[in-house]
Amino acid sequence: MRPTGRLHLGHLLGALPNWVRLQDRYQCFYCVADLHALTTRFDSVESMKRDGIEMVADWIAAGIDPERSVVFRQSEVKEHSELALLLGMLVPVSWLTRVPSYKEMVGELGERIATLGFLGYPVLQTADIILYKASRVPVGEDQLSHLELAREITRRFNSLYGEVFPEPKAILTKTPRLVGLDGRKMSKSYGNTIDMAEEPEVVRKKVMSMFTDPARKRLKDAGHPDKCNVFSYHRFFDTPQEELDEISLGCRQADIGCTECKQRLAARILARLDPIRERRRELLQEPGLIEDILEGGRGKAQEVATRVLGEACEAIGI
Ligand code: SF4
Questions:
Q1: Ligand 1 centroid to 260 CA: how many Å?
Q2: N or C: more exposed end of the chain, with fewer CB within 10 A?
Q3: Where are the domains of the chain?
């Protein structure tokens, strides 16, 4: 995950629970992809580091266990860069220019991001995966094409130099589609998110600002819960079925007001966030703790990375 700073409810319901569960079945490597971030972030590296720390605090508070999983910073395991360079020697440029997200992002962010590094993003991503001989990668449906490219690159390496790397397969998990507070796609840049670490007053305030059924302007107007974002959030935040039925009927008969409905939702969200915020506070209160965790992870990652890169170099003959 790129160091984006504090994570939000989309992550809490999306990637993170999946990552936490995978720890029971697999040896997992979770990496702060700071080299990838350099392709589009041109602000200070210091602020990127801080964002990485905030993000790792969220991971751990949500249940990633650095004792069981390897949690590290990509840039601190230099083998990622070296393997990406070697893979770059065998990846045709045409494979990269046809990646749809490349053109989309250049169109969105402008030519200044059309660098060699950004074009080669999928090559570095492949290195991130196969450097640990990963058999599985947890991805969302939108990332499947990237993984397919990683598999193609892996096959090309293996066919040229011998079977060094297993072809990584996807672990596809359906995650709930949580939209932003205003009903648009959830995105920090739209300012329509609630951070996992958000203080209770802020959570309440943000929930009260959520868009509801546009047809329900006054308390006595009947509402349509199926058209209301607040109602869909109720489902995601464990409101029991009985209460959902009550809200649904109350809304349609104009017996319950949006203010009460939102207050109840805020309480549900806070019940999920309170322990995470507390754990996060403890983690960040201890000076250097997250850095120590990342350093421990770097050691474990490097052990594997050095061995596997050595195998790759030997296969190539360098
Ligand atoms: Fe939405 Fe609840 Fe208001 Fe109905 S009562 S429109 S479900 S916020």
A1: 9
A2: C
A3: 188-280
